[in-house]
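User: My collaborator sent over this chain with a note saying "see what the structure looks like." That's all I know about it. Can you take a look?
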Amino acid sequence: MLMDSPNKCLNKIPDFIYDEACLDIINTLNQTIYIFGQYTECHKCNFQKLSQIDPAQNSSVLVNTVYPIDLYYVRDANTTEECRFQKTLSEHYRYG
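Assistant: Without extra context I'll predict from the sequence alone. Here is the result:
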């Protein structure tokens, strides 16, 4: 799931290739969150940890836009999914 150039989204204007987009995530909570994701095409695959974001910090994740992505987050050591959603992203776009 993770792309070959995970730092590409650190650039203000990323040099995207086909089927890439950046997902900018801001943690406004007072605790660390962990972002998990998986493409809907991958039937019964385990979710992968995409990012760990400390309190009042942000992170950017490079994603492939060929298939819809299913995302959720958990707080600290908690394993309960929060705010789970599925989204089809467009290539060459920055979401935040």
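A starting point for your reply to your collaborator: Residues 19 and 39 are 13 Å apart (CA to CA).
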